[in-house]
Automatic annotation (TrEMBL), chains A, B, C, D:
Database matches in Pfam families: Semialdhyde_dh, Semialdhyde_dhC_1
Stated role: Catalyzes the NADPH-dependent reduction of N-acetyl-5-glutamyl phosphate to yield N-acetyl-L-glutamate 5-semialdehyde.
Molecular function per GO: N-acetyl-gamma-glutamyl-phosphate reductase activity
Pathway: Amino-acid biosynthesis; L-arginine biosynthesis; N(2)-acetyl-L-ornithine from L-glutamate: step 3/4
InterPro entries assigned: AGPR, AGPR_dimerisation_dom, AGPR_type-1, NAD(P)-bd_dom_sf, Semialdehyde_DH_NAD-bd
Key words, A-Z: Amino-acid biosynthesis, Arginine biosynthesis, Cytoplasm, NADP, Oxidoreductase
Lineage: Bacteria, Pseudomonadati, Myxococcota, Myxococcia, Myxococcales
Name of the protein in its database record: N-acetyl-gamma-glutamyl-phosphate reductase
EC number(s) reported in the record: 1.2.1.38
Annotated transmembrane regions: none
Gene3D superfamilies linked to this entry: Dihydrodipicolinate Reductase, domain 2, NAD(P)-binding Rossmann-like Domain
Enzyme class: oxidoreductase
Catalytic activity: N-acetyl-L-glutamate 5-semialdehyde + phosphate + NADP(+) = N-acetyl-L-glutamyl 5-phosphate + NADPH + H(+)
Amino acid sequence: MTRVAVLGASGYTGGEVLRLLLAHPAVEVVQATSGQFAGKRLDYPHPSLRGMSALRFVPHEALEPCDVLMSCLPQGGLIERWARVRELASRVIDLSADFRLDPTDHERWYKKHPRPTDVPEFTYALPEWTASQLPGARYVAVPGCMAHASLLGILPLVCAGLVKPELVVDAKTGSSGGGATPALSSHHPERASALRCYRPVGHRHTGELENIVERLTGTRPSVHFSATAVPSVRGILSTVHCFAARPIVDENEPLRAIATAYREKPFVRLIRPNTSASPFPEPGPLQGTNYCDLAVDVDPDRNRIVVNVAIDNLVKGAAGTAVHALNLMLGRPETEGLGFRGLHPI
Amino acid sequence: MTRVAVLGASGYTGGEVLRLLLAHPAVEVVQATSGQFAGKRLDYPHPSLRGMSALRFVPHEALEPCDVLMSCLPQGGLIERWARVRELASRVIDLSADFRLDPTDHERWYKKHPRPTDVPEFTYALPEWTASQLPGARYVAVPGCMAHASLLGILPLVCAGLVKPELVVDAKTGSSGGGATPALSSHHPERASALRCYRPVGHRHTGELENIVERLTGTRPSVHFSATAVPSVRGILSTVHCFAARPIVDENEPLRAIATAYREKPFVRLIRPNTSASPFPEPGPLQGTNYCDLAVDVDPDRNRIVVNVAIDNLVKGAAGTAVHALNLMLGRPETEGLGFRGLHPI
Amino acid sequence: MTRVAVLGASGYTGGEVLRLLLAHPAVEVVQATSGQFAGKRLDYPHPSLRGMSALRFVPHEALEPCDVLMSCLPQGGLIERWARVRELASRVIDLSADFRLDPTDHERWYKKHPRPTDVPEFTYALPEWTASQLPGARYVAVPGCMAHASLLGILPLVCAGLVKPELVVDAKTGSSGGGATPALSSHHPERASALRCYRPVGHRHTGELENIVERLTGTRPSVHFSATAVPSVRGILSTVHCFAARPIVDENEPLRAIATAYREKPFVRLIRPNTSASPFPEPGPLQGTNYCDLAVDVDPDRNRIVVNVAIDNLVKGAAGTAVHALNLMLGRPETEGLGFRGLHPI
Amino acid sequence: MTRVAVLGASGYTGGEVLRLLLAHPAVEVVQATSGQFAGKRLDYPHPSLRGMSALRFVPHEALEPCDVLMSCLPQGGLIERWARVRELASRVIDLSADFRLDPTDHERWYKKHPRPTDVPEFTYALPEWTASQLPGARYVAVPGCMAHASLLGILPLVCAGLVKPELVVDAKTGSSGGGATPALSSHHPERASALRCYRPVGHRHTGELENIVERLTGTRPSVHFSATAVPSVRGILSTVHCFAARPIVDENEPLRAIATAYREKPFVRLIRPNTSASPFPEPGPLQGTNYCDLAVDVDPDRNRIVVNVAIDNLVKGAAGTAVHALNLMLGRPETEGLGFRGLHPI
């Protein structure tokens, strides 16, 4: 059994990490930290853990050595504790943006990185694209949720040379991506009917998308990213509007490129025409799962290729990918502990 | 492996039965029938089954012999086919009301039962109360969803003699209980904001509650039942208003009675004060699970005891109980295939 | 024009009071106070006021004399300022519970009333029942929202002597009743799927219902009140379960009693059978209106009479009744400024 | 009083037309037709009309001469009846796509127009842009709801020459746009959590946008349009991604262009920075109103200009614009009967 501790475990990604790890056959959760809930049982803030564990939260400072540490601290929390944390665990998986971007991009979108020389030690965990780097990785950075969904749509087409490096990404997201801390904009009467493009320009995932596409393909694209809040709790739908690099002759070429990219990938499901009563990628039935559903459509008259990508922001977009990376790091079966396939209707 | 066929498998309870059985380690799903979707793959109407099975629906008439048959046909469908179905499987689990009530009550709330002598062959599957009858049962009737939730709140107090046999049950339900067939009242623009007491009196579960409480306790109560549609898809909250049989001296007596009744019952969780940031039974985090959360409150000044009971209508209220009963019938571990503990937030 | 000031105008009831008064043909809004938003325009927190007024919030302390003062301060706020406020306006309408209950009940459900001798100066504004007292009233207390809805169902039957003085009231409410201040329980991810009986016993509206029914009918009933949060923002559905005082012979008697009680009342609409494709009182299509829809059902076998009452908690349950009372106090047409009839679908 | 008849008045746009006209001071509703509800009162399918009218639906065939006819028939319904309808009323306002597009575009996106020579008789009612043509218009075509919202964002920038004629329009819509007829995709359990890009390419409003922008500006753009269903009933948010025609030097230029375009337009509200606690255009608080809220954002590094436009699809996107056009045709005040300013929270 791999002994895993979870740092910052009382928020929403922390709750999902605990839910997955407590049911994982190869893992023992040895500690979970929380400032706010230290001393309380794990199920105190997380009703979905009722009856799963007798463990109680400890303060962040009480963290002891373990095999793997997963950090669900908010932005900046791991950087701040990095000197100490790296002494406690030989392997660390971070779910924040602390070590995702190259220092130059980090400075542009967040702030000057206080530990730029540590950044290259981290592997960016996009398992469908960087799986080969994970077995040996010591430190892993889990992608941002909207960046993750969008990359899964962008990369097959960019890699196949089918599209121009100028993309419009219109991402729609539920409220849980904003975390567990109350605020006026997430107060239920204000948020329940929200359909608001809360970040039309300047969203940080713009930087993550441009940085990672460049890192993985060699070409830095212009990503025109907007984020819209929709009236749901879990789930992201990222609509990636691409423009064909050359006139579209074969309308099935994009579909084939995507099918090829994800042929052996257990968590990505390409929805083909006429195979479903509801043939659109939707985050609803993906809630709780590590699956990504996607579909591609082509407008040959206007040379546009549209990829729609749906995930659960808290699982495939966070905790599930952390566990997926852990499986790869430990040499376990890729899907271990990630078998849940979602609910319908919901 | 027990070979199970599912009759009427394209609706919502059928989808949940398939979801649970396809992941069940001791079961092989051998056939699934559907009038509407015959020839289509199981995941055509059920996106949560994507990638789980290559099976296709067959027409009801194509049903072949199997070990256990689960029927998710609508009301009246199994009665109509009973002569043939009982030849195909030695064990049958029915999720409709066809064989739930004693013939007298059936006639009063549905219509004259065409096969009254077959009714006594069926065991009513309320596992927390009738588990001992299930191992040997050939034919099993799964309770109605709102009746099931309400019974779990009523029975401990009635059995302990704490309350009068006159109860007000105010049940709240999501839209999935109405099934998968579109209608004006379930058209999204009409139903999305619905908060409507659609059956203030005369709901059939009144009869089920009175019949089953009498069968299990010997006392026939008056149940004052109302059903209210709320703006959600899955889940039932049943608020059971009881009146103490004698003045309340010890406010903890109802809590103890309920705790005793469910002490060894893995799927019923009594929420005790101060153990949760959200100490109320709610169906939200129970979606997809076979769990029942309940809590009890006492107003000693007015002699009222209130039990709130939350379940997922499609799982604990239907498919999960069917699988729970199957486990007991087959001598398998009670919780096999029913381990999912739900999501939060959702 | 009557010059009206609104005290505590940045919350949800304050916003509705402003919305109604700014469009009222006989009223001029002269001041609106807010601690948090002093200096901001009225539409800063209230998007529905965009373009309606150039007024800005002033601090509570900046309040000047006016003809009528409406107070939307939270519980206790008006009591605290009463000595000063009564000097500023000859007529005051309070939307809190500060002066609703008799001092004995106030002490029991809130705390010892610091100004018990001022309480009798207030008229309880339940226009369908106390309209005759309003023209001469100087000080007016607007009912609590769930109490208001429930009283509209209870009073006709109690007054007609049709029901026992022991009632079960199961009220369902949206999130806006909790006010505009964020909290964990109203954080969107926590509240969006909530179906929780958050106050099964001990809700303060129990005391208001018992107090007011006694005041208006002479009989103090036992009210068994529970409040359940449902996944919506606006609206209350109160299900009043009554028991017939004597065996029900004429099933239409309750309907006639209610129809008689509200015959000349413009804001109460009794839904009769077969007059609507959706014949249930629902708060959805009442959003923004001062209307109350109700229906009555009878179970003669169990001697139960059920009244379902729907209102918008912020209008009929608060701001609309305040304006309704103002109209009666000023001798204006009863429905002035309250003509909006709601939206469907919504 | 202008005598208006409403053809096809039992659907959602019909209900909104009736709601607005029944409260309009210069209009008398003389007839309302319905196939399904002939003989029933207007409030039978439309609860928001309770108490507003004693009129009953008549069959389409019973239509008599009137001053103005408003047609809410589904696509193709008015074309089919045009020969007869034009004899009954000298002025006709159509809310379908029957006479919106030039015949060439109509054929491409719908089917060959059976009455191409009648099309030029119709004025396209986009009041902020075509108001001058409406006073004399006999026949008027109301824009499609998503096209309408998008045009309000596109036109100021195209007319000012600020953007390239290649636009990505990502429109999000509630379920009421699909009409009142039940279907599987709008069945509440299927639609409640829907976040689905149901028409990534090939949506008919693509054609309407290209046709109308060309008609009004002389330049035919390429419009890359996608439509996404979100979990709400009313409302559209159209996100218009534009690319600056030349490098952006002055970031305020787009804002000024839009402000200038709508300076005297009572129903379009440009949300400027720092004027609201919720500074994003959102359809929620616009429900029931004829207002359009919009905002503009600029990414100078990537040369993108984003306009977000929110409307209520059934009002500004249909019935409200019909009434707005009627006011202009009749020489009435532009805002008459359209004063409702929406609700918050909702």
